[in-house]
Amino acid sequence: MTLKDWYYYSGSDYESAMKRLLTEERVIKYLHKFAESSAYKDMIDAWKAKDYEATFMAVHNIKGVCANLGLTRLWEASDALCEDLRGGTPSDAAPELMMEVRQCYAQMMEAPQNK
């Protein structure tokens, strides 16, 4: 599977990533860094602890990385959750928004890897 195929499969924007990072090697490097980062785990842990400020910070981090890497579906989901948590208190929609982030993240991580 090519990197472009992976982007398509994961609901992401290959062209956007290439415009920002210029080479597939750089894109792959930063995708690996994102996969190895603790941001997602930090978000889940903070959510479970009902620490919505820490959840906001973690999801804000995820949102920024996704914007730069063209990870469109995950960016959209994390943006919605981030905005919901921006005031410090989650709305009634927050659990559903969190589920969407989790599903998008899982789909991206389960996408066949570029070889």
The Rg value, from CA coordinates, equals 14 Å
Q: Percent of residues in helical segments?
A: over 70%
- The H-and-E topology, N to C, reads as HHHHHHH
Poorly predicted segments: none
Structural class determined from secondary elements: mainly alpha
- Summarize model confidence as the mean pLDDT: 93
**Percent of residues in beta strands:** under 5%
CA(first)-CA(last) distance: 6 Å
Number of strands: 0
Can I get a quick summary?
The protein has 7 helices and no strands. With 115 residues, the protein is mainly alpha-helical.
Structure, explained:
The chain has 115 residues and is mainly alpha-helical. It is built from 7 helices and no strands. Helix 4 runs antiparallel to helix 5 (52-69). It is elongated, with a radius of gyration of 14 Å.
